[in-house]
Amino acid sequence: PESPPPPYSRLSPNDEQKPLDLSDSTLSYTETEATNSPNVTPGDFSDASTSPDAVKRSHWCNVAYWEHRTRVGRLYTVYEQSVSIFYDLPQGNGFCLGQLNLDNRSETVRRTRSKIGYGILLSKEPDGVWAYNRSEHPIFVNSPTLDIPNCRTLIVRKVMPGYSIKVFDYERSCLLQHTAELDYADGPYDPNSVRISFAKGWGPCYSRQFITSCPCWLEILLSNNR
C-alpha cells in the first residue's frame, strides 16, 4: 500500500502518547520508498514538494524550520500523507534539515542540530495529525488542541524517543472556541499551527519561556480551515 498502517493502530486510542512498534513498516517507510524509487539514489534527498504529481494535489501543511528567532530555508510544502523531517536519514526523502545552510551558527545550535538525527515523521490521519519521535532525544510539542481550554498557561508536551503523539485533533479544533482576546507573549496565536522543538523544551517548566529561545524548532502550518 502507498500508506503503511500507522504504528499506533493496534494500541489503545485513549493513550495520549503511544510507543512506536519497531516492527511496523511505517518506521522504514521513507527508506523503503526511496530505495525502490528509480528516481532516488542512495544518499539523494528528493524534494517531494516540487514533484510534478505533487503539484496536482492540494497540500495539507507547510513546515518552517527555525533556529531561535531566525527562519532557515524556505517553507516546505507537504502533499503526501506522511513526511519525514530529519537531519540525516540514509536513503531517505523528505525535509532534510541538514542541507539548510546558515552563516555564523552558534555552538548551541550546532549541538542541538547534531541531536535531530532521524527527527520526526508527521502523518495526516482521519482523526488528526500525528508526530512520531524517531530521534534519540525528546521532542517538545505545543498545539491548540493539546492546550487546556480557558487555561492561560502554555502547555508543552514532552515526547520521548520511540513515542508518538496526536499533535493536532481536527474534531477538537472545530469544537474549540478561539477568542480574539487570547494573548500569548511569545507571538501571534494561530489556531492551526503546531510548534515542535528538538531536544530543548520551553514554557513555564523550563528556563526558556518562549519557543524562540529554542535552538532548533519547527512550525507546522496546517491548511485546516484556511
UniProtKB/TrEMBL annotation:
The keyword Nuclease is assigned to this record: no
Domain of life the protein comes from: Eukaryota
Record field: compositional bias (Polar residues): 23-40
Protein name: SMAD6 protein
Region entry Disordered, spans: 1-53
Record domain MH2: where: 60-226
A GO biological-process term: anatomical structure morphogenesis
Keywords: Transcription, Transcription regulation
Protein's organism: Prunella himalayana
UniProt cross-references to InterPro entries, sorted A to Z: Dwarfin (IPR013790), SMAD-like_dom_sf (IPR017855), SMAD_dom_Dwarfin-type (IPR001132), SMAD_FHA_dom_sf (IPR008984)
GO molecular function, one term: transcription regulator inhibitor activity
GO cellular component entries: heteromeric SMAD protein complex
